[in-house]
């Protein structure tokens, strides 16, 4: 049994001219129940759509919102060593999009540290674009997240979050 899921990283960020290009990061979280068994999926792509990094992990029990944030954190951590100067984040979570760009206040105590972690991971990029996309545009990441849930429930992979962390990740809105 493996811990959490699978990860893959490869390639270089420089165009043939030596100019830094845009890294495109896509992520999705899924929860069967809210809260319930949760998984995350993420992809890091170059501008041509080549996959440079991939993440698929079983979280254990979490809410869908918590899974969405963990998905973005996981793929940003995988992709940070790729050396890109500019970052474009694509997500089907409107809440995540608005909270990361500062349009929505982070009311949930459980999401505050996750939003702070995302902001710290994107600080090093010269330009960052965060874009909400329709679910249909994020099918690959959804498949990775749901595969992690299936593998986790089948006992093939261990959850990333342990039982003691469970209460930390419940949605508590002030």
Please describe what this structure looks like.
With 174 residues, the chain is α/β, with parallel strands linked by helices. The protein has one domain (2-9, 21-160): Nucleotidyltransferase, domain 5. It has 4 helices and 8 strands. The chain has helices at residues 64-79, 94-101, 112-122, 139-153; strands spanning 2-3, 5-9, 22-31, 36-45, 51-62, 86-91, 127-132, 157-158. A 6-stranded mixed sheet has the order 2-5-4-3-6-7. A two-stranded parallel sheet has the order 1-8. Strand 4 (36-45) and strand 5 form a beta hairpin. Helix 1 runs parallel beside helix 3 (112-122). Residues 8-17 and 166-174 have low confidence and may be disordered.
Descriptive tags:
single chain; 174 residues; alpha/beta; Nucleotidyltransferase, domain 5; six-stranded mixed beta sheet; two-stranded parallel ribbon; 29% helix; 30% strand; globular; disordered C terminus
Shape: globular
Assess the beta-strand content as a share of residues.
25-35%
Low-confidence stretches: 8-17, 166-174
Kindly report the average pLDDT value.
86
| Main beta-sheet annotation | 6 strands, mixed
Structural class: alpha/beta
- The amount of helix comes to 25-40%
Strand order of the largest sheet: 2-5-4-3-6-7
Total DSSP helices: 4
Number of strands: 8
- Provide the gyration radius in Å: 16 Å
Second CATH tier, the architecture: 2-Layer Sandwich
Q: CATH top level?
A: Alpha Beta
Provide the CATH topology: Nucleotidyltransferase, domain 5
Determine the CATH superfamily. Ribonuclease H-like superfamily/Ribonuclease H
| Cα separation of the termini | 39 Å
Total domain units:
1
SSE series:
EEEEEHEHHEHE
């Amino acid at each position: 049994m493996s811990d959490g899921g699978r990860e893959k990283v490869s390639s270089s960020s420089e165009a043939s001219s030596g100019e830094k290009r845009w890294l495109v990061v896509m992520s999705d979280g899924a929860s069967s129940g809210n809260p319930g068994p949760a998984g995350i999926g993420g992809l890091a792509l170059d501008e041509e759509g080549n996959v440079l990094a991939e993440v698929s992990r079983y979280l254990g029990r979490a809410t869908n919102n918590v899974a969405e944030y963990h998905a973005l954190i996981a793929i940003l951590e995988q992709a940070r060593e790729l050396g890109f100067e500019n970052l474009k984040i694509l997500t089907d979570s409107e809440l995540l999009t608005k909270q990361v760009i500062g349009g929505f206040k982070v009311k949930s105590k459980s999401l505050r540290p996750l939003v702070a972690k995302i902001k710290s991971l994107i600080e090093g990029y010269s330009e960052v674009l965060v874009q909400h996309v329709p679910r249909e545009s994020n099918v690959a990441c959804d498949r990775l997240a749901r595969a992690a849930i299936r593998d986790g429930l089948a006992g093939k992979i261990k959850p990333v979050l342990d039982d003691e962390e469970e209460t930390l990740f419940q949605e508590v809105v002030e």
